Amino acid sequence: MEEKQTIIKHVLVPQHVKLSEEQKQEVLKKYNISSKQLPRIKNDDPALKMIEVKIGDVIMIKRKSPTIGESEYYRVVVNG
Amino acid sequence: MESYVYKKINSMIFGMLSPDIVRKMACAKIVTPELFDKEGYPVDGGLMDVRLGVIDPGLRCKTCGGNLRDCMGHFGFLELARPIIHVKYADVILNFLRCTCRECGKLLTDKKMRIQIEDDEEQEVTEDDADVSTKKQVKGISTTLRNVKKCPHCQAKQHTIKVEKPTTYLEDDKRINPIDIRTRMEKVSDSDVAFLGLDPKFARPEWMILNVLPVPPVTIRPSITLETGERSEDDLTHKLGDIVRINQRLFENINAGAPEIIVEDLWDLLQYHVTTYFDNEISQVPPARHRSGQALRTLSERIKSKEGRFRHNLAGKRVNYAARTVITPDSKIELNEVGVPMEVAMELTTPERVTEWNMKRLKKFVEAGPKKYPGSNYVVRPDGRKKKITDETQEQLLEELQPGYLVERHLMDGDISIFNRQPSLHRMSIMAHRVKVLPGKSFRLNPAVCFPYNADFDGDEMNLHIPQTEEAKAEAETLMEVQTQIITPKNGTNVIGCSEDAITGNYVLTKFMKLSKEDAVQLLHSIGFYDTERFLTFKKTVDGKDIFSALLPEDLDFIGKSKSKQPVVIKEGMLIEGVIDQATIGQEKGELIRALVNNYGHTRTLQILGKIFRLGIASLGIYGFTTAISDTDLPKDVQEKCREAIYNAEKRVAQLIGQYESKELEPLPGQTLEATLEVKILEVLNKARQRIGEVVGEISDANNSTITMALAGAKGNLLNLAMIAACVGQQSLSGKRIDLGYRNRTLSMFNRGDLSPKARGFVRRGYKDGLTPEEFFMHSMTGRDSFMDLALRTPRSGYLYRRLESALQDIKVEYDNTVRDANHNIVQFKYGDDGLDVSKTDAGKIKVVKTMREVVGE
Question: What ipTM does this complex have?
């Protein structure tokens, strides 16, 4: 457990946030897509160890971007 | 009429042909290896049987009745005397042998194990990667099952099975023959087959051992008639002939009750022939050869790799209306033009539709025919029939010509064409040019557009294509013409700009030149500038800056920096301060060119750029510009300074070595004493060369052409000059001084452990002075290293690029700024996170101050 926490705190690991169902629908509506068309993330991804996720959840990732400072990226959880 | 079927493929199944299907789809049974009888007519039941299709014009197919055009050919089949293993399925057969019981044919699992595996399966299979996981799973099953010693169903003892590549299977060192293998395969139940990853409806394991061989139609193995009238058969026909011959002999021997050894030998021979029929490049199997010794090209080789069906015939096709020849430079033509040789212009054509209004004009082309220049080669009737214009047909066609017809007339000045140089790594590797018909035999190209094509004139060839429909022409004009490509989408800089002499010329013109009014007008006229109004503003002597300004738009305001970071100011179309050099008009750097594109559009920019280019070259001609070895003669004082710099450096290095030997040297943090010494020595030596570069750069450029070119950014830099004139500097291999050597020294003339600069590859002389033998050796070491590095890297990076290209080919930015693949899966939510079109930015950045100034109008 100790080790996992340090992975998430590492500077190169961006912040992962689980979206609520409403937020998820909002994202899907915004891009006019089904959740299958989102980029995927496996449920055993080390970055997800600290949050509880189930298959089909959408994870928002706040990444540092060289062009605009911080960008948001969405990935859907799939079975790994 | 053409008809189109709009249907979406729902699913596709790859399966194997069962013996039944092979027999059913066959139109002829092949029984004899003979091809033709004495009269030269195909033998019935031979490999060229007339029922297999037609390859000779005029004949009719015995199966479908079609002629050469209609009949696609029909399969035949060959009954094999003994079963033969299909090499391409050898691995799957092995897997089946290992996973099933040799007695009862059941899978070597008990119920418990099987349920467990099935559970895993259900969990794992998601629709997208179903086949990936099945593959993985089958592999997992087979590795667990190959070690089972006893069948859990019938308790029969299991033996270990080995393969002797490619098609011999051994069970405890005893060979199992294909007949036995086949019976074992037959015993495997459908559910077990499915468990091992095959769909039993479309692929039963026993079908992997061939009883019958499909014989492909003659249309895929046509024979060629040689000049002597002899027929030469296709490789596949040869191979099939071998198979049929051995098969017949095997039949006869079996029927005659020949001894088992003879039968087995023939059986192995047949196996060999069938194996090489499928794939003639299997290791351990000697390839079947022609009598000349050349290996036969059988089924696999027809499909595989670069010369195979996919990459050679399907992904890459040859086209009509194209030409290829050597390119040569011509700066007198416009940038968006291409000089086309007369011979090419008379062979390539562009179709023009006859209307009431252009009838008279087009008739003239038909009248001229194919042999006189502005003529035509073909006339196309409205029904699509193409008629060649010859002496016989000419008169009739001329009479016939009416609106609706097409005339394929010769290329003329101003026609649109598409010009390309391989490798096409870029969007800019294929651009549209206007045709300019010129004498000579090479394509003429303005040197300013060499850069986007990455072309030079040391023998490069390029391809020219002529669009054949109005749509294609319009598309080429609006999307591909040279002026639309001035700004690259890579980083928003200009890929088309001045180079070499054109930069030097403008630099010299705007820095040193002053001409009399007459000379200035003469100069401008020679580059195609005829604005007489402008000439009236000239005074008695005209400054070079004013001559350059004549080409600029009258309301241009521009503030930029030259290469030497000096300001360049243009106000109301007049260059009032600064010099023009690489930073203003050069490739990938020209700020002035970008400003022109933004304010006046690409078409006008291209015209101005063409004139600037020619002005540069013409100016150089007037100025009289020569570079020679004498340019590298350094003045006495500079020479002295260089010598001093080297001397000081060598002294300092000797000091460092002294400190090292007496252990006075302080090691840098985290480094050994030796490494510290190396770092310090390298630093000193590099500083010395830097210093020499600076000293050389202090020489005035007014009367030194080499320095002029370096300062203008046209060719070479001060370091190059320093290397020629003063000191080549430290030679380094992978970032270190040269320290190789078997016995602690680089060359035998040095003492062991010598750390001095000259023993470790410091070249203190310049190229012009000449290098000492030791220096020459060290220098050639680094030269060899970089040469080999390049030679090894080029093909690798080419292949890497090919793979990247295939992976990214249909990714694009959609209208909502997302980046998606062909199935509309999202790759990026906003292109580059900011959604910016790079080609619309200032070298990849948004310059806020500049934009504000423009908006406020300051």
Answer: 0.91
